[in-house]
Amino acid sequence: MVPSPVRQRKIGLTGGIASGKTTVAEHLATVHGLPILDADCYARLPSSPAVGSGSAS
Question: CA 8 to CA 54: how far, in whole Å?
Answer without folding.
Answer: 39
